[in-house]
Amino acid sequence: MSLDNIQLTSSLYQSLFKNYLVDVNQNKVDKKITEKSEINFLGSNEKKIIFIANDNKNNFLGDNQMKFLNDLLSACNLTMADIGFINFYKNHFSYLDLTVQLQPKKILLFGIAADEFQLPFTIPFFQIQNFQEQLYLISPSFDDLQKNKELKKQLWNSLQKIFNLNQ
Fold it and tell me: What whole-number distance in Å separates Cα of residue 1 and Cα of residue 93?
């Protein structure tokens, strides 16, 4: 008998392959995610770029932080029509929920750790990370950035790479 012609019984197959190679419950998972409450955001998300901050005092952002966001967008040649801005504090969700609902290509997190967002990895601030055909950047909060010139420089360097801006 050669190895090319081994015959296995059905009970042997069953004992060898106890776990599924394909998730048979995938449709149920996707349905659960989409049934979750809708994520509220500012902007039109035309370019599928999502900015997420964590502000416990406002529905979206305070005046100073909104000015900072608008300055960032202007520097990157973007407008509120191009992005979706979400206050994570008011909309707890995971990266899977966000992917299903808004189909982002770029996700910038301000003051939110990777594990809070349920990402399966951690990265240091300002490191650009590709994951599942999406680009991620994690940064300190808007408040911390506004107070620290060095952090602003590091953020700007990362934004130049993300948005292919001339340096």
Answer: 57
